[in-house]
TrEMBL record:
Organism: Rheinheimera marina
Keyword Ribonucleoprotein in annotation: no
Domain VTT: 53-159
Keyword list, A-Z: Membrane, Transmembrane, Transmembrane helix
Taxonomic path: Bacteria, Pseudomonadati, Pseudomonadota, Gammaproteobacteria, Chromatiales
InterPro entries: DedA_domain, VTT_dom
Segments passing through the bilayer: 57-80, 103-122, 134-160, 172-191
This protein's name: YqaA family protein
Amino acid sequence: MRIFQWMYDKALLWSRHRHAERYLAGLSFTESVIFPIPPDVMLAPMALARPEKAWRFAWVTTLFSVLGGVCGYFLGLWLYEPVVLPAMEYLGKHDAFAKVQQWFTEYGVWVVFIAGFSPIPYKLFTVGAGLMSMAFWPFLLASFIARASRFFLVAGLMYWGGEKMQQKLRDIVDTLGWGTVGLAVLLYLVYR
């Protein structure tokens, strides 16, 4: 079944939409606060479809992701008990958030940098930084450097890979997709 290849083709088509850049900005912002899907899934096809704008898309993704991170920071700083804590309990993420707080105590600003660059849910760390009253400017600097590094790397790979990479991704996207689904099911079964 080639469902992921069909979705990949649709993503490339949608990435050419006249409002795609606005959607990328919105996704980048919300992912840093609440949304579970990373902006890379939109940035990569957009950079592939329009390589002449790859660097612009990386800037948009970076800036709006950092702005979302700032929003998450202030949610944690000012609205943890009335807004964030009930949401964490409702979603069953209270234990994960306790682990984030422990990492802040151990690693400080470095944990923001690592979360901003890696696939670790960045939103937990933006809210955690505010909750832990981390100094704002180091948080902002670590967020900007980490997010820019990640998104410019993605855009650069798509830009330099070009048509060859686009075709190669299209050829293997079903294998990657089903492998990810299988890994998610396995992790669910192991950790439930």
